Amino acid sequence: MNQAEMKFRPDRTPVIVGVGQVIDRPERAETGLQPSELMAQALERADADGQGGWMRQIDSLDLIQSVSWPTDDPLGLLTARLGIAPRHQNHGPIGGETPVRYLHEAACKIAAGEIEVAAVCGGESEYTVQLARRQGIDLPWPERRPGWQQPRDRSYLHELARAHGLNQPVFVYPLYEVACQAAWGQTPQEGLAESAALWSDLSQVASNNPYAFIREPRSAAEIAEVSPSNRPIAWPYSKLMVANPVVNQGAAFIITSAAQARAAGIPEDRWIHVGPGAAANEARDWVSRERYDQSLAQDSVLESVLNQAGLSGPQIDLVELYSCFPCVPKMAQRSLQMAKDRAISVTGGLTFFGAPLNNYMTHAIAATVLRLRVKPSACALVYGQGEFVTKHHAIVLGGGARPWLGEAPAPERTTANVVKTNAPAIDPDASGSVRVETGTVLFDRAGMPTHGVVVGRTADNARTLARVPASDLRSIGALTRADRTPVGRTARLRKADDGLLECAFD
């Protein structure tokens, strides 16, 4: 079917008809729900939310990659538990944006007449896994896949990133935060205040969400202040500013056509229409990107999806901006020209609601659907992200008549080439001095610095990475000053005994 044939056919309009969520907080590990059970219960709730009868009609099932308890056949476990056999089954890759992508893909297939009913679901039980470890309990769950290392496979990263310990998102996103603060004309203290206020607002949203894992509202002052319960992780982020994966949560949603929804007797004011979407990727190796004071892929995705929907950022009623770390929604806010006092989540964010690894955005879509049902005239933007500011996907949802209902959703629009513009050369053996592009300091669990890392530009504008030893208090202090950014400063390079570059500030 070509695009012309896909022009508006009311009966093929893709709509979300059911959503379901589950939270589990066991006192003893042996009573905790395994991921497949969380998924099953969430999908059963989505079926009930859609007035029932959908389960055996599902002909496309997308399963969000489960990390907390990986098994050889997660789809088989789930479908056997539910007694269903969808024609199309998919267990996708790692990525926080995958729920948005699966929604977009399912909507396009429904609009094209390829499938009739689709479901997306996911679940994680990291809370139980860690509880069992503390309690010395062997979980009576299906055998865990031996040697499963996919989430930790960082072979695609530059050897400099791995050598300096910058191989996990929690250590890389701070580099964006520091670079963005400088680009926006903020001192670190001002950037911290903005992040803390934003995260305090998220905690308020989570406090009113029955599926949130942390429902205690936190003040901006609590979030900004380093304390024994809010230890530093990687400058300038502390524990209350990073995603919290230690949760047991499951979520699911069901999508079908307007014709099927009508035949099932679902009132139209409960239909949530799936609008246009867009996707883009940064270079997977973050060392090889052009810049860290913005995400070109993020900008491209947000601009594309709004243009397709015929909307501007201020015209969007509800937003869910991925919130693994503060720099992500702060960049998105500016790209969307959103007022800083606007809510960035209907869910509560990955710190307070919780971060069920790849599945947060399934919960976000479910929460957005519930909000849109209360106000059918509203529209929402849902934006997810994966890896190291790498993978981006956004989609528009709405109830009632929407300007974009005149066309079927377009297949995924990828603008990946936009991110491969002017990446600098990488010089692992630079000498002399560098101009600081960004940097961070990593801390141990006791709150003591292990080392700092500077990303810098040489005299010929090549990029290099250099370690700042924890013993160099002067240079560690330069990286963590509250009143002055290190960006733009000069640091002297030297070769350490282990062959890595080190640097020091004057």
CATH topology name of the largest domain, in short, is Peroxisomal Thiolase, Chain A, domain 1
Strand content: 15-25%
The biggest beta sheet is recorded as: 9 strands, mixed
Distance between the termini: 65 Å
CATH homologous superfamily title of the largest domain = Thiolase/Chalcone synthase
Q: What letter string, H or E per element, gives the SSE order?
A: EHEHEHEHHHHHEEEHEHEHHHEEEEEHEE
Total beta strands: 16
Low-confidence stretches: 1-6
Radius of gyration: 23 Å
CATH class descriptor of the largest domain: Alpha Beta
List the strand order in the largest sheet: 3-2-4-7-1-8-11-10-9
Which CATH architecture of the largest domain is right?
3-Layer(aba) Sandwich
Average pLDDT works out at: 92
Q: What report would you give on this structure?
A:
The strands form 3 sheets. The chain has a 9-stranded mixed beta sheet. A 5-stranded antiparallel beta sheet has the order 14-13-12-15-16. It has helices at residues 35-49, 74-82, 98-111, 126-135, 159-163, 169-183, 188-207, 220-224, 258-263, 296-309, 327-336, 349-353, 360-374, 473-479; strands at 14-23, 60-63, 88-91, 117-125, 232-234, 237-238, 248-257, 272-281, 318-321, 379-386, 391-398, 433-443, 449-457, 463-469, 490-495, 501-505. The protein is α+β, with helices and mostly antiparallel strands. It contains 14 helices and 16 strands. It starts with 13 loop residues before the first strand and ends with a strand. Residues 1-6 have low confidence and may be disordered. The chain folds into 2 domains: 10-131 and 245-419, Thiolase/Chalcone synthase (Peroxisomal Thiolase, Chain A, domain 1, 3-Layer(aba) Sandwich); 433-505, OB fold (Dihydrolipoamide Acetyltransferase, E2P) (Beta Barrel), CATH 2.40.50.
